[in-house]
Design a protein that fits this description.
Elements: H1 2-20, E1 27-34, E2 37-39, E3 42-45, E4 48-57, E5 60-69, E6 74-83, E7 88-96, E8 116-126, E9 129-136, E10 139-140, E11 145-146, E12 150-158, E13 161-168, E14 179-192, E15 198-208, E16 213-221
Antiparallel strand pairs: 1-4, 1-16, 2-3, 4-5, 5-6, 6-7, 7-8, 8-9, 9-12, 10-11, 12-13, 13-14, 14-15, 15-16
């Protein structure tokens, strides 16, 4: 597993280094402020700030995403993604949770207390319809993954409205067996601040039949 971590880090460094030599680049940075952090129907944290840094070129993107909650919850993920021009995309995500007990050591790659869960993900979208599939390739006790964890989601987006349903097993489920865990709708609206600046306000209502919990989440993007 240590070899896997080293390989991913090396590929990321080499990729960023090669693209940095181009005459033009496409770096972007943003931050979401959310009322609570609900991921795939699972409540993970209270009010949080969630920054993103991304480099994109020719359909390929690589970057980092994080979440810092007022309750002390921390997450720091790395991701890579390639978007084909016919609607298909493929990617890899490295989940790391520094605030979780036994998950603080960034270089721990053991099954018992390992801090990284690596997930292969992909999806396809056409005319507002999207499907996505995700597969965790390793067991990491510190991150909470069981290995072979799967999650599937389908959604439809029309203008600023989105409806979605998803489910999975492993760390997505209370029992570990496959369950529907994420049913909801979301709306995005641009809030004008001046004639030249506005920010998107996002709101979602989410039902998790597996945990029997209902969530209402609001957020803004800066």
């Amino acid at each position: 597993m240590k070899k896997k971590i080293s390989l991913i880090v090396a590929l990321a460094v080499l990729t960023v280094g090669s693209y940095a030599q181009e005459t033009t680049s496409n770096w972007s940075a943003s931050a979401d402020i959310v009322s609570s952090y609900v991921w795939r129907g699972l409540y993970l944290s209270n009010s949080s700030i969630q920054p993103t840094v991304t480099f994109s070129t020719n359909g390929f993107s690589i970057g980092g995403w994080g979440s810092a909650g007022v309750d002390g919850y921390l997450e720091a993920d790395l991701f890579a993604k390639y978007q084909f021009n016919f609607g298909l995309w493929l990617g890899l995500t490295d989940y790391y949770f520094p605030s979780i007990e036994n998950g603080n050591d960034y270089f721990d790659a053991s099954e018992e207390t390992g801090s990284h869960a690596f997930e292969i993900n992909g999806g396809y979208g056409i005319s507002g319809f999207n499907i996505a599939a995700n597969y965790v390739i390793n067991k990491a006790g510190g991150a909470g993954s069981q290995g072979s964890d799967v999650y599937f989601e389908a959604d439809y987006t029309y203008k600023n409205f989105r409806i979605f349903v998803g489910g999975g097993d492993g760390w997505h489920s209370v029992s570990g067996n496959f369950n529907i865990s994420n049913i909801g709708v979301g709306i995005t609206k641009n809030i004008p601040v001046s004639t030249t600046f506005s920010f998107p306000l996002k709101g979602s209502v989410i039902l998790n039949p597996n945990t029997r919990k209902f969530h209402v989440v609001a957020g803004i993007t800066l």
